[in-house]
Amino acid sequence: MVFREVGQRIWTSSPLTQARRGALRAGTSALSSTYSVYKVHPATWRFTATHYQPWMGDFARWHAWMTCQLASLNVPAYRAHLAEHDWRFRWWDLDNYPPTDKESYVKRHTEAQRSRRGVLELRGTIVDESSGSSGTPYNWVRGRDELADVHRNVAGFASLMMRGEDRLFVINAYSMGAWATGTNTGIAMAKIAMVKNTGPDLDKIVDTLRHFGPEFTYLVAAYPPFLKDLRDRLDAEGWDWPAWRMHGLVGGEGMTEALRDYCEERFLTVRSGYGASDLTIGIGGETDLTVWLRRALLADHDLREAVLGPGEARTPMIFQYNPLETYLETTPEGELLCTLTSTSVLSPKLRYNIGDEARLMDWHDLAAVLRANPEWQLPAREAFHKQGMKLPLLLLFGRADSTISFMGANIYPQDVENGLYTDERRAAQIASFTLTLEDRDGDATSQTPTIHVELRPEVALADAERDQLAADVRTGVVAYLARTSRDFAQSLEESDRSDDIDVRVHAEGTGPFAGQPDKLKRVYLSRDGRSS
User: 438, 450 in Cβ contact below 8 A?
Assistant: First the structure.
């Protein structure tokens, strides 16, 4: 014990600390510089993504360890965090570094304390604000070099997704306020396309499309509900869709296959990206392969069990991501940890837990699963060759608390959305919805899942029509749950109450939607039990 304490004091002595700091800084800088070669141009980014090998993931984990160790030496907040967890240095052991999160790390330390050397660089630094979907909005600082990396990564991915499309014109419909997504998307897309930052303004987008005409290929970047709003608006104006080439790129929240199908009845493709204000906007993105896989998981029980394991009722969003930039891992509880490995990151993100449940899967492991069945392999191969990305897969379930439980089964907002948008006529009438668990006939001892549906502004329904819409919504949601959730299907057999889902239809801005600000990121789950 004495020898261990003496050794620890020697190891942490000032001369050795300075030597370790210099070696780690040189090592991590060398790795970051090596990585940066593939981001010089979108074409080199595409080459790396299509030639990724598993050994690169091991290399990325080593780099993540070096990033955490360097932060233990030059980030004051992280030093304090490690001391609180009685941390002791161990070579090459990434698990040795305790995870960070918003509560235990971000809220307890200032921006300067979470920056390298405790200094918050001012020139070129941009402050982003989170949307506040998980509570009070937070501020996040990003330096000039860090933002340049983000823009190159987003541009590289978008160029791969839009490969073969000429005369690309990006309509950036994200908010242009303090949120990270809007401004960074506009800057990134300008590297590969002509861009107009309209923000979420339907009139402005329609005017832009009419002015420039159908000679361009349009990529509309927006939140998923807004892309639906745009489709509905253009439909209402009698848009000549076959004359236009229009794609959708969505982010900021999850998207169901029902909503994708609804939008892709007009848009050529709709793909989603994954990011977080806490971390970066370019963590991962959907490809043709991941979209095929997600749809196949909904339709094929055997494939679902082969990929997700037995008994998993949830269907994740599926992205491909680059561990060389964003090293991902999961906790024993299945929550996602992220380490941004570039030395350009102003405020290092170190095994950061954002609260999302996820699983990770290597592309080569997925390929081995698919080879077991030609009915899986052939369509998967066709989808893969569209982009040819061999990057690993992120299977994202979302936040663990985004659900309500009823009669032994979990109901997620995604389940409701899938049930809502399976019918085109019904989907065109709906602006938004929220899911809650409410007292049954005023009895607090008996609760019922309740879906509140808000109509679009131009939709006016008589009482009988509202009753019919509510019945249709209930039928669609119950049918989807019975098809995809074994727990729900079992409960239907065992209890008459299991399909007792209440649906209430409201005019725009009434009921639980009254007095709400015009939020671009919708609230799909309410826990306060309010209703009208």
Answer: yes
Nearest 5°: phi and psi at 68? -65, -40
Strand 352-361 relative to strand 393-399, pairing = antiparallel
Q: Which of 481, 488, 319, 469 is nearest to 392 (CA)?
A: 319
What is the C-alpha to C-alpha distance for residues 291 and 316, in angstroms, rounded to an integer?
11
Which strands make up the sheet holding 443-455, listed edge to edge? Answer: 430-440, 443-455, 502-506
| Helix, strand, coil percentages in the chain from 3-state DSSP, rounded to 5 | 45, 20, 35
Q: How high is the mean pLDDT in each 10-residue block of the chain (532 residues)?
A: 51 61 61 54 71 88 93 95 94 95 94 94 86 65 90 86 89 77 87 93 95 97 90 95 96 86 95 88 92 95 94 90 93 95 91 93 95 94 92 88 65 81 86 80 64 90 90 87 73 62 89 70 55 37
pLDDT of 332 reads 93
Q: Which amino acid is at 141?
A: V
Any idea which residue has 């296959």 for tokens?
257
For residue 224, give the nearest of 521, 529, 527 by alpha carbon.
Answer: 521
CA atoms within 13 A on the CB side of 138: 19
Residue 330, classed as helix, strand or coil, is strand
Helix 54-74, helix 76-84: angle, nearest 10: 100
The alpha-helical segments, DSSP class H, found in 300-423 are: 301-308, 363-370, 374-387, 413-420
Q: Look-up: residue for tokens 């819409």? A: 469
DSSP line for 202-271: HHHHHHHHHHHGGGSEEEEEE-HHHHHHHHHHHHHTT--GGG-EEEEEE-SS---HHHHHHHHTTSS-EE
pTM above the 0.70 mark? yes
The Cα angle at residue 15 between residues 13 and 19, in degrees rounded to 5? 115
The 10s digit of each residue's pLDDT in 102-150 is 999 999 999 999 999 999 999 989 888 775 544 567 888 999 989 988 8
Q: Where are the beta strands (DSSP E) in 470-523?
A: 502-506
Pairing of strands 317-321, 393-399: antiparallel
Rg (CA), the chain: 24
Which whole-number Å values give the CA distances from 219 to 76, 129, 169, 269, in the listed order? Answer: 43, 25, 6, 9
- Measure the CA–CA gap between 193 and 333, rounded to whole angstroms: 42
